[in-house]
Amino acid sequence: MAATQAKLSKTAGKPIHCRAAVARKAGEPLVIEEVIVAPPKSCEVRIKIICTSLCHSDVTFWKLKDFPGCFPRILGHEAFGIVESVGENVQDLKEGDSVIPIFLPDCTECIDCTSKKSNNCSKFQFKVSPWMLRDGTSRFTTVDGETLYHCLFVSSFAEYTVVDIANVTKIDSRVPPNRACLFSCGVSTGVGAALRTASVEQGSTVVIFGLGGIGLAVAEGARICGASRIIGVDINTDKFEIGKQFGVTDFVNSNSYEDKPISQVINEMTNGGADYCFECVGMGTLVQEAYACCRKGWGKTIVVGVDKPGAILTFKSFDILHMGKTIMGSLFGGLKPKSDIPLLVKRYLDKELELDKFVTHEVSFQDINKAFDLLVEGKSLRCVIWMDK
């Protein structure tokens, strides 16, 4: 470790030339380019990315032609890396630390960050910004001086990136890099939604709309909580066999029931509705279906999927009052990055949280576009991208 720190410290305070996968136009293949990464400013660290994984949110931003889509941009927000250097006023991180960047800020000081009731920092409220967290500028330029936009305060599709300390969580170095990166977003979001947001109870019935990476992470969390029945809803029948590995006990193909709403199917299967329903696709219509099939009196509907900007949900006032159901959002699974991620890491090290089954593919950095193809075609859950492999 000492030798590694000595090697890293030679670049401290200096711009670094490195490779990055740059998204130049919406939906077009990323371009591997030489970029310049500036030194970290106050309350920032520069991280050497060891590996990164592809989340569906990256695909969403990659396809967006209008804001919050913007180009040229360095995407990526699930990653593991080593702190290369630190800026001024950084106390809790040092060169050589194993870290994961996380899109959700955690200042640890504001009323929300110090409360057990919220993970939505009020000092640095989460927003989809193309800039650094504090000063609204970029740390990336091309060799010709062109400014490159950031993504979700992380931009991990580069060999080096600069991240605010509010978006960095130190992680146990015993976790392999190709597993540690999964804690940055998807797995934590899904598992957290079950453990923290919903507080799924042992013996309960859970319905999950959408068995992508997030939905399967919810299933993993529900399995850990001891749910007795986990019903997966998807249009891809292949997802049922995959879902079994994550604790899914029943599968419903929503395309097979054209004569009645899927909520009616679920209500009939569960004798009146499920205890917990999770919407993991990002469609307002599915949120309403999930709400319609969570049990009256105590059922909870948890919104995990991200719908398009401006999407509106509509519920009848009568149903809200008389049914006694709950609907709630789950940003990053309700987890506080700096305090809750170490707890998930412990579950992994104790072999309670199973991460291996989430990683279906691994590619080298120069093959990053293959990772996009695999995810878009529905062939992968998580594809890990190694910078030097």
From TrEMBL:
Q: Which InterPro entries match?
A: ADH-like_C, ADH-like_N, ADH_Zn_CS, GroES-like_sf, NAD(P)-bd_dom_sf
Q: Which residues form the Alcohol dehydrogenase-like C-terminal domain?
A: 213-345
Task: Give the required cofactors.
Answer: Zn(2+)
Q: Name one GO molecular function term.
A: oxidoreductase activity
Segments forming domain Alcohol dehydrogenase-like N-terminal: 44-172
Q: Mention any Pfam family matching this sequence.
A: ADH_N
Q: Is Oxidoreductase one of the keywords UniProt gives this record? A: yes
Q: PROSITE patterns this protein is in?
A: ADH_ZINC
Has keyword Zinc? yes
Q: Which UniProt keywords apply?
A: Metal-binding, NAD, Oxidoreductase, Zinc
**Family label:** Belongs to the zinc-containing alcohol dehydrogenase family. Class-III subfamily.
Q: How does it assemble?
A: Homodimer.
**Protein name (database record):** Alcohol dehydrogenase-like 7
What organism does the UniProt record list as the source? Solanum stoloniferum
Taxonomy of the source species: Eukaryota, Viridiplantae, Streptophyta, Embryophyta, Tracheophyta
